[in-house]
Design goal:
- The complex is a heterodimer of chains A (about 280) and B (about 280).
- Helices cover about 80% and strands about 0% of the residues of chain A.
- With about 280 residues, chain A is mainly α.
- Chain A has a domain of about 160 residues: MetI-like fold (Orthogonal Bundle).
- In chain A, helix 9 runs antiparallel to helix 12 and helix 10 runs antiparallel to helix 11.
- The two termini of chain A are about 40 Å apart.
- Chain B has about 280 residues and is mostly helical.
- Chain B has one domain: MetI-like (MetI-like fold).
- Chain B is built from 15 helices and no strands.
- The longest helix of chain B has about 35 residues.
- Classes of the chains: A mainly alpha (about 280), B mainly alpha (about 280).
């Protein structure tokens, strides 16, 4: 049993480390997480269906998915531009700029939430210039997109950067020496190279955006049917002691995220193979 | 990054200087607008009522108790996840066994779970209607809507940080050095302290920094399991929310600025560690 389970090694400590890992993983992650599914399974299918298809919840899916896709797309465009500049060009302060890219990972979401709200409110630094144009960002779906872009941007930049840095520039040289225009080199050589990384970055940003809570709830304003995100409805149900409702919505969100993560895993494996082959 | 600087780009195919300037300006503007401006706003608003207002907000008893609870949470969650990270990375990277990939995937699960759900699951286990709800109330033990729940939810959210960092680092280091030490007569303990730990110290520090930053800043999960009791179950981010919702904006931003300073320090540490190990960011 032992020999077939693991390859023999002279290094000590496999069993203590392995058993500790399994026990701790089960106690902190697996058992509590399974509670979510057991709890959902105890309510009737009809009840679950009624909850997850109620108009308020459906409106929240529309906002959460829509805003996450929009924020992901903005992150892809802006993130690609930033990654390109950071990899290909030299400018003073580049190391500092590169470090700042990770700020949304490090800044607590609640802090980001109130800061963005204050910037984009009608009297805020940015909001005051948009208000005369009739553009409202805080307390509208646009605000949700702004917050999710803040959260999503680093995912795209950090996915694209290493691929762009590793990309063999000889390919581009070959293309241009064979008469390709700059635009052709970009669309036919560079873009196909980084497409998997862009897709990975988008999916990571999207997956994170779907579940995001802290940075969104302040700027969203949480108006029923208009600016309520799905995670907020889980909290609202919990606060009303509607555990069945909360777990049903949570199940939808969890299953979606797991499917997404599975897809990302496959994507990343493909990117890695691609990079190793290159 | 540094390798890129020396990579010779043939002059013929370098982008024209106007394009370079234009794109760089655009990228910096975008980063400034999306990422740097919110940080600046935090500090400017924190001092909206001057130093005195800042001092009062930061030194209020509620803020101090929030700082205490945040530090307590970090002090328990981070060491737990660090020990776990080392154990998991040791088992996963130094040995070959069946189901290894599944184990690595399971360790990453908390990254894919919405913070709100990370809190919810502990309510389902320990709450009044939860699995152990009756037993806990019979024995007068409160876990959710109290400090233990906050610590548990934070531990869940920050679970993979150290493990993930160490796994990718130790995977690349292989087992040669440890095997050599053992063959030369070192005990398991000597091997760990003299070979493994020095090899992984920067990666370990990096993981601990990420884990600490996230543990201090976690909001959604903690918000669900905390009872929102002022001065008792409020961590710093929850305190920011309460002040903000009371329209005490300068107070909220003052407390937020404390968290922002920690975020900036953790970024600086992260950059420093990356330079030391010469590894690219993930």
């Amino acid at each position: 049993m032992q020999t077939s389970f693991r390859r023999p090694s002279i290094l000590p400590g496999f069993w203590p480390a392995f058993i500790y890992t399994i026990i701790y993983l089960s106690l902190i992650v697996l058992i509590p997480l399974s509670a979510e599914f057991f709890k959902t399974a105890t309510s009737s299918w009809d009840h679950i269906w009624t909850v997850v298809t109620s108009p308020q919840v459906v409106a929240s899916y529309r906002l959460s998915f829509g805003a996450s896709i929009a924020a992901g797309l903005i992150s892809v465009i802006v993130g690609f531009l930033v990654a390109w500049v950071l990899v290909r060009y030299e400018f003073p302060g580049k190391a500092l700029v590169d470090a700042l890219v990770d700020l949304p990972f490090a800044l607590p979401t609640a802090v980001a939430g109130i800061a963005l709200t204050s910037l984009y409110a009608e009297n805020g630094w940015i909001g005051q210039y948009l208000a005369p144009l009739g553009i409202k960002i805080a307390f509208t779906p646009l605000g949700v997109i702004v917050a999710l872009t803040f959260i999503g941007l680093p995912f795209v930049i950090r996915s694209v950067q290493p691929v762009l840095a590793d990309a063999d520039q000889e390919l581009e040289e070959a293309a241009s020496s064979l008469g390709a225009t700059r635009w052709q080199v970009f669309t036919r050589v560079i873009f196909p190279l980084i497409r998997p990384a862009l897709l990975t970055g988008f999916s990571l940003a999207f997956a994170r955006a779907l579940g995001e809570y802290g940075s969104v709830i302040f700027i969203a304003g949480n108006l029923p049917m208009k600016t309520e995100i799905t995670p907020l409805l889980i909290v609202t149900n919990l606060e009303q002691y509607d555990y069945a409702g909360a777990t049903a919505i949570a199940a939808v969100l969890l299953i979606t995220s797991f499917i997404l993560l599975l897809g990302i895993n496959v994507l990343q494996r493909r990117t890695r193979k691609f990079m190793e082959a290159a | 990054m540094s390798t890129l600087a020396v990579q010779a780009v043939p002059a013929v195919k370098r982008d024209p200087i106007a394009l370079q300037l234009g794109l760089t300006t655009l990228a910096l503007l975008a980063l400034g607008l999306f990422i740097v401006l919110p940080l600046v706003a935090v500090f400017v608003q924190a001092f909206a009522k001057g130093w005195e207002g800042y001092r009062v907000a930061v030194q209020s008893p509620e803020t101090l108790s929030a700082i205490y609870l945040s530090l307590l949470t970090v002090g328990i969650a981070v060491p737990l996840n660090t020990v776990f990270g080392i154990a998991a990375a040791w088992a996963v990277t130094k040995f070959q066994f069946t189901g290894k990939n599944i184990l690595v995937t399971l360790i990453d699960i908390p990254f894919g779970v919405s913070p709100v759900i990370s809190g919810l699951i502990y309510v389902l286990v320990f709450g009044a209607q939860g699995w152990f709800g009756n037993w806990l109330s019979d024995h007068d033990i409160q876990i959710v809507f109290a400090v233990p729940g906050i610590i548990l939810a934070t531990t869940f959210v920050t679970f993979p940080f150290v493990a993930r960092e160490l796994i990718s680092l130790m995977e690349s280091q292989g087992t040669d050095e440890e095997e050599a030490a053992l063959v030369l007569g070192a005990s398991g303990r000597q091997m760990f302290w003299k070979i493994t730990l020095p090899n992984i110290k920067w990666g370990l520090l990096y993981g601990v920094v990420l884990c600490t930053a996230r543990a201090l800043g976690e909001f959604g999960a903690v918000s669900v399991v905390s009872g929102h009791i002022r001065g008792q179950t409020n961590t710093l981010p929850l305190h920011v929310e309460i002040l903000y919702n009371e329209y005490n904006y300068s107070g909220a931003f003052a407390v937020a600025s404390l968290l922002s300073v920690i975020a900036v320090i953790s970024l600086a540490l992260k950059t420093f560690v990356e330079r030391r190990t010469g590894q690219e960011s993930p």
